[in-house]
């Protein structure tokens, strides 16, 4: 027997979509809260990022060590073993010397941000005939200045740079996901009618 309401048979998928967007909104709020915490406590956030990097190196090393015995050829095995050992030693060294690791990660971050600014400015000269190319130049200059600010204030920038930048990233990611989730909820409500 056919339903008189065309969307009646679709109530199951809408219910599932509503549940999924609910979880999506919860995760978005958690991102916003973590971002605010990282901005308020940038030193703790920087320490957390450094610990995360050290654990990722250790786990990556373990994966290489395990994977070494699944490759063919003595050279491949030796190469994978050496990479795995280097990763594990690097991760353990970062964990043992957290302040040095935060400083090194801050310098690396400054160099990457500065390089991004340079590439944005180069992109501007390739796109300067386009309508919004001024924004590319503006972004490049601001990014270049941010990288220089972190670099020239090093090592004191180690206290705030990683935490603030990770915090802003988490906050913006959370806000965009929150807006996207709310928009999806609106679409679902309209579809269910």
Structural write-up:
The structure is a single chain. By secondary structure, the protein is mostly helical. The protein has one domain (11-192). It has helices spanning 11-40, 42-67, 74-96, 98-127, 133-152, 161-192. Helix 2 (42-67) crosses helix 4. The chain is extended and about 65 Å long. The mean pLDDT is 83.
Features:
single chain, 193 residues, mainly alpha, extended, 6 helices
Assign an overall shape.
Answer: extended
Largest sheet, in brief, is: none
Quickly count the helices. Answer: 6
Q: How confident overall, as mean pLDDT?
A: 83
Write the layout of secondary structure elements.
Elements: H1 11-40, H2 42-67, H3 74-96, H4 98-127, H5 133-152, H6 161-192
Helix pairs in contact: 1-2, 1-6, 2-3, 2-4, 2-6, 4-5
In short:
The chain is an all-alpha fold and 193 residues long. The protein has 6 helices and no strands. It has one domain (11-192).
